[in-house]
Request: fold
Amino acid sequence: MIQKLRPRRIRINENIREMVKETTISPKDFVYPIFVVPGEHIKEEIPSMPDVYHFSVDNAVEVAKEIADLGIPSVEVFGLPEYKDEIGSSAWDMNSPVQRAITAIKKAVPELVIVGDVCLCQYTNHGHCGKLCGHYVDNDSTLELLSKVAVSQAEAGADIVAPSDMMDGRVAAIRDSLDSKGFINVSIMSYAVKYASGFYAPFRDAADSAPQFGDRKQYQMDPANFREALKEVELDIAEGADIIMVKPATAYLDVVRSVRNKINHPVAVYNVSGEYAMVKAAARNGWIDEKRIVLESLTCMKRAGADIIITYHAIDAAKWI
Ligand code: PBG
Reply:
């Protein structure tokens, strides 16, 4: 008997494969993270993140131009401050690298959507994402501080603020503060589902933000939990989040798919530093084909339901697509 059902028929050549392709990726899907540091004319590679750099504000502007030229619509700005203290007050200092970079990028490339990462861990001398009460990160007093950070970034010119701290109620607190200062059109992209993940290790080198004691498990989620992710998403939507993020990406695509099926808000994923570093390390050893792995991974994030992909691969991927 001749086999009648042949899924292979529609894989027979490149054109037919293109015709039946269900998911495509485009530079328009990406957000590129930029790390800004104090000083001038600085471009220093981050050792655990090959091809990713610390930039001073002047060079961050040049990268932002390159991003826009590649058709990537957005950058997310992270910063290393000039000083750290108990409460992370440099996080809302208008003279800090992040605020200056946001203003300078907005001026040079007005159409680029600028996302400000709202957190305190890069700015506190203990490396935790909020104000300490003994060894406990105090939730409610941290909300005021995060609100100040969000407002300062909006004042600098950010289009979107992205709280990544995982305090309860921060979306509502930030929305209130933004609105009361007239920033009604500044969006909130909430790191709604952020796991306490080992995949952030290279970022902590990049942002000098490792906790000086303990870990972040009191506020970030347990990788073992799924239902809790949906609860976090519900709460952040109720508090006024405009875009919902799941982080990290690759190991959590089941969560991305479920969140996508459950809500009508845009879903973002953060393809984090450890995911990036693993690909780069294996590629440098000649063990994998970097281009192929990167495009495959990004396509799978989109297939899982992500509308927006924050990724350090954005520049390379945009060139390869
Ligand atoms: C700040 C923050 C982190 C990341 C984004 N914002 C680190 C952390 O929570 O420890 C991770 C990004 C990455 O790993 O690429 N809280």
Notes: Residues 117, 119, 121, 129, 164, 200, 203-204, 209, 216, 272-273 surround PBG (CB under 6 Å). The radius of gyration is 20 Å. The chain has one domain: 24-320.
